[in-house]
């Protein structure tokens, strides 16, 4: 997990991404835009983190080691209304619809 000390008023964004280069790119962009990003690369670490330190937004990959993104989205929705944006390489319409149906707020395809 990658995290830096932040001001309590800085919006916190949880990045759930197992591809190191993309995760670092998202961290760099979000820090430059004055957000406080945290990167988690394994699905099994997400739920405990969200319960203990709820972020203001979650950028969630679908295909992760451990618990997959769809399962995580479904589980997070059981206890939280934190906005979730699915960020994935899957470009099929059915994947997008499934993600939105189980509770994601938006869906972005990776370049």
From TrEMBL:
One of its GO terms (biological process) is regulation of DNA-templated transcription. It comes from Escherichia coli. InterPro entries: CheY-like_superfamily (IPR011006), Sig_transdc_resp-reg_receiver (IPR001789), WalR-like (IPR039420). It comes from the Bacteria. The keyword Phosphoprotein applies. SUPFAM superfamilies: CheY-like. It holds the Pfam family Response_reg. The modification 4-aspartylphosphate is found at residue 61. One of its GO terms (cellular component) is protein-DNA complex. Residues 12-111 form the Response regulatory domain. GO terms for molecular function: phosphorelay response regulator activity; transcription cis-regulatory region binding. The keyword Phosphoprotein applies. This is Response regulator. Keywords: DNA-binding, Phosphoprotein.
């Amino acid at each position: 997990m990658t995290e830096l000390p932040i001001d309590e008023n800085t919006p916190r964004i949880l990045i759930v991404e197992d591809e190191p280069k993309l995760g670092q790119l998202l961290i760099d962009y979000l820090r430059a835009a004055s957000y406080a990003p945290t990167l988690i690369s394994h699905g099994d670490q997400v739920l405990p983190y969200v319960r203990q330190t709820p972020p203001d937004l979650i950028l969630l990959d679908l295909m992760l080691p451990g618990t997959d993104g769809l399962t995580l989205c479904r589980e997070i929705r059981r206890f939280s209304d934190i906005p979730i944006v699915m960020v994935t390489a899957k470009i099929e319409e059915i994947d997008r619809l499934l993600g939105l149906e189980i509770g994601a707020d938006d869906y972005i395809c990776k370049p």
